[in-house]
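User: Working on a comparison across species. This one is Solute carrier family 19 member 1 from Ilyodon furcidens. Can you predict its structure so I can line it up against the others?
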Amino acid sequence: MAADDTTASEGRSDGEKDMDLKTPPPEDAEGHGDVETAVAPNPSEEPTEDSRDGIKLKCSVIFLCFYGFMSSIRPGEAFITPNLLSSEKNFTKQQVTNEITPVLTYSYMVMLVPAFLLTDLLRYKPVLIIQAISQVVIWLLMLLGTTLLHMQLMEFFYGITMACRVAYSSYIFSLVNPVLYQRVAGYSRSSVLLGVFTSSVLGQLCISLGNVTYYTLDAICLGFVSFGLALSFCLPWPKRSLFFNRMKNQEQQELTGKAAQSELEKINPKRGGLSSTSRWRDSVFVHMLLEVRNVVKRPNLRLWSLWWIFNSTGYYLVLFYVHILWNQVNSTASYNGAVEAAATLLSAATSFMAGFTKIRWNIWSELVIGLITAVQAGLLLAMGTTNYIWVCYVSYILFRAFYQFLVPIATFQIASSLTKELCALVFGINTFLGTVLKSIINLIFSDKRGLGLDVHSQFYVYFIYFSLLTVVYLISSAVVLIRHFKNQNRERGDSAGGPPTELSPVPVTSEAELLSNGKSGST
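Assistant: Here's the predicted structure for Solute carrier family 19 member 1 from Ilyodon furcidens:
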């Protein structure tokens, strides 16, 4: 059972993937650009209201990053599976694999949509408090629980904490102007990754050097999450959100629109009645749902959304069960924390490197995805067949790193051509569909009500799953490349006939394709 969104495994890690969303420039006059420029008052003058707001903004961002760091420190997460299988808890491998761990996926699926909607409706902070309370309950159950039902409840609350991650990921965007989104998203993600790394290292030091018992480690985790709960009550309360709580100037525009509408109703009552009955169609959320249909029609968005759904499904299933595999291969090795820390560092490095990768993604996306998925399939086969624990460790670290390399690329490819609101909705739908698929696979292969496979057999299933994805991606890549080179040869033949005219199309240069992210400069 992998520790989740904050073991450094992102299955239980709140630091999974904050999205740098592309948003339009601010519509109001309050978008001042930099925090630094907004908070640099003239020393000879009294502090202005803008400068005080800038200082308050800085403090809010710093406090939120500190909260993200502290809430990610749970040293015992990397050792949950050894804890459950130890003499202190005394559960069997079959119970942990087929009865306890599957509850996490089901809970996550059930809670994801309510958490997504409540996050926006309640403006983030209450959901973060719910997440912090769930963390306290988790470690109380780990500290005091002794029965199978207690551990299943623990996994249920883990599902709640995973579903509530969206609150932290999007909270930061409610505090700052759109021009600062990319920067503050980097701050918040870095703080969580640092917390994950610190947590894993601290847990490993406690086990390896301090000879700390699992009971003591659970108590340490309970102390950290209790402090995180106290911090959550001190978070500033945002005044706006994406869908249900709009900005003040938008509210004023709505009031102006209602006043104009009432005048129209006086002139034309029939028209006014029709507008009131169809008012639900004008809501932002419903409008976004209707816009999602256009995403499916765009090849680039469709490809990366499908990657997000199918590859993230396999990724998180591996994270949920890899600790059980390690215990199966070598029950005496206790380097989970060190491995998770190394995986976090390498994943952060590959994510950073992805930002400097310059290729024509409209042509090579399928091939790159197919090759990386093939490598991941090979790593899963190595993990499922080896009897050497260090082969498992290294394969796991590389498996995570390859996935994290593609995450920022997928995020940019999806977000770069969508509005902030639509982007959040698309990512939410992709995550939900991936969670449904995880639950189906879990129910069939892992749950005792299904086939109830042991962990080695499950990793064979994951290998077959990634192999099938590889075949699909490579076939798609071959189709795209053949079509591209045919078009390229046709364009060369057309250009060889003479200078371009109105009847002779001008080929798009590679530079234009690269700068426009796969779309011609005319679009």
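For your comparison, note: The chain has 20 helices and one strand.

User: Helpful, thanks.
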